[in-house]
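Second attempt. The first submission of Anchored repeat ABC transporter, substrate-binding protein had a stray character pasted in from the spreadsheet, which I only caught after the job came back as garbage. Lesson logged: always re-copy from the clean sequence file. Corrected sequence (496 aa) follows.
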Amino acid sequence: MKRVLTALTAAALLAGCAGTGGDADGLQVVVTTELIKDWVEEVGGDRVDVETVVPPGGDPHSYEPSPRDAATVAGAELAFTNHLLLEDHPLIKLFDTNVPEGSPNISLAENAEPYGAKLLPLVENITLDTVWLGFGVRGETQDRAAEITVHLTGYTGPGQATMFLTDAFGTPEIYWNTADGLTSTDAITLPPNAHTHVNWTFSEPGVYTLDMAATLTDAGSVTEEGTGTFTFAVGVNPREVQPGATVVDSGHVDLTADLDTGVFFARDDDRGELAAADVVIDVPTKAVEQIPDSELFAFLGAPGADIYQLPQAVLGKHVHGEVDPHVWQSVANAKAYVQVVTDALIEADPDGRAYFEERRDAYLAELDDLDAEVAAAIDTIPEENRQLITTHDAFGYLADAYGMQIAGFVVPNPAAEPSARQVEQLTETIANLDVPAVFVEPNLQARASVLRQVAEDLDVEVCTLHGDALPQDAPTYIDMMRQNASELSRCLGEDS
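This time the job returned cleanly.
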């Protein structure tokens, strides 16, 4: 995993001009989320003045910064993000562009490992009836705010081809659409070391080719980073399109730009790297869906018409890297975050060292108690009930630390209402696991409607877990984790 330029070594070098801790207003600290604000205030006390950018209850994965946010960040003497691609890329760019030169700008997750944090890979093993096709980027950049843009530069085929993403509220964001010709706007942009999931649609059966080119914008310069032409067999036999080619018809595949080699290829979780010229992507007849009767999807064609679709599988904008960013769901990892925060505060305000260390030690003792409390609550859950079905992949660290399993949940076709078959598959999953409850996050209600309906049909309780945002009635990290543990015990325990 790449180490970004916000490491604590940089903070130490810049400490002499970082701030004026101990003055009447305190050290000016700006952070992305309420969770980070809580940790900074626990250690910093009255020697810090902390402002957050993402509002209470907001989702850092999708928050769009405002000009007012830029002014807030520009006043930072010390800045913290979680990163590992937790925050949406515009939010990271906001910090990297506006944090004043000389003020440390620290990613907590990337710096937590030396303090004992255990980082986990973000494993995606969703099974679809078709290939799960997205985009990926790998390789080194100078700046974590760099951007990689994949352009659609050419196209052949018997019908219209589109590539778009459906956000958490069901609204499509169109990246390219051949119906209105190709322009420079037919493009999708990703941050470094990320990948994302999208919808691909084709209006008619036949063979399509899509020419793609990647460019990198990094530290003020733009470079070309590879091209590739990918062939799609839509509603026809893919093995007759290009004899000898590898047919990609299942699994998780990213069309990937490698910044280190300048090669654009298909990266298959099971088959490794596949050259663009040697691949045929199968879009089978069973991928046919009907265009939703909604003005939002008019760009696809007439409502009710058939369309071939490879779905994005995960509802909502879902850009992430290879490491799960929700590190704090293990209390032991949160302790590592607190250590990072403490050292950064000491570097920025050396006169406060004794004060910060005393508060840190007291808070770490509270976290030890919390860790034991969460473990004890989950110990009350029978082994067979320790299955988490949620609307968001935010609880892998909780499951790993406290002996649970992630069963997960997706809507395979987020561009439309789930089909009867898709709802049936979800119903079978919940019924086979025989769990007494499923879990939703309050700030992600738009993803939960189908899960709620299936749970109601099976007489399964719908409970609440908090992942990225603090609950209104539990406004600290300790409160949130205590509430989550209590809810897990209540909803999955012996008496559930």
